[in-house]
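[READ THE FOLD]
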Amino acid sequence: MQKWLALLFLLSLGVHAAPQDDITAVLDRFHDAAARADLPTYRQQMTTDIVFLGTDASERWQGAEFIAFAKPYFDKGQGWTYRPRARHIDIAASGEVAWFDELLDNDKLGLCRGSGLLLKTDSGWKIAQYNLSMPIPNAMIENVAQAIGGVAGETDGEHADEDAASRDSADSTGEETGSETESQRRCKKRHKTNRKADC
């Protein structure tokens, strides 16, 4: 009997969790460590050169830069809590790269989305990129886009009259009266860099 138990024990050592389970565990530890402001555990889930993208367009941190951003908050015990609601994981045929997307609940922001990339390393799966965003319902997206445009910077003076004329080309029902589409008009607007927006 003892020989059989020993054999079963040895066989169990060779059985590993499915890659999806390992990746799920990494992402769960990542969120749990952030909620507990546990910086050492948080760091262990990432590659050293992780790219973290926040909800604001200016929020792009890489590697030590992201840890430097998080540390003052964690030192005060002020982490951030995102509770996974649903998650999808895909793994490349090589078995070395995985990508994911997940819906998250946050007390302040409500429904959020995380997505990113993991790499299989000698010490297990590590998050190489994490992108936190807020999904916007389609019914609200034009109002949100207009609000963001107002914050990001107005059209430069050179095109102000042209943009005003374009806006006036829609009749009172909101439909186009000219040949120019709403998308084409939006593409004329410029960013702070004074370059045309990508369309």
Notes: Residues 16-133 form a domain with the Nuclear Transport Factor 2; Chain: A, fold (CATH 3.10.450.50). Confidence is low (pLDDT under 50) at residues 154-199. The chain has two domains: 16-133, 138-168+178-188.
